[in-house]
Design brief:
single chain, Glutaredoxin, 18% strand, 5 helices, globular
Length: 116
Amino acid sequence: MTDAATTTDPVHAFIAKSVAEHPVILFMKGVPEQPQCGFSATSVQILDHLGVDFVGVDVLQNEALRQGIKSFSDWPTIPQLYVKGEFVGGCDIIREMFQSGELKGLMAEQGLLPEA
């Protein structure tokens, strides 16, 4: 294990704290109101469609954060979705889970969907 993989790394500590504090968090390019790439935009649209309350973190604000999220999750692409502290996946996984109904099920199971 490298030093970068420990929580003594300030970027990893920030990511871990953010993931722990927010039930649904999307590390993305841009912000939910103004995504900076198509994959981030698609992920935001899916979460908005489900009515899920989520926090977006702009990885473009800081190169260390942009690289740190990739090593934190061991996932090479952005955006990255976390639900109740667990890594869910990137845009393709989010889209596939949405299309199959699995994402809505996960959000409902976690009590994260708005009341009907």
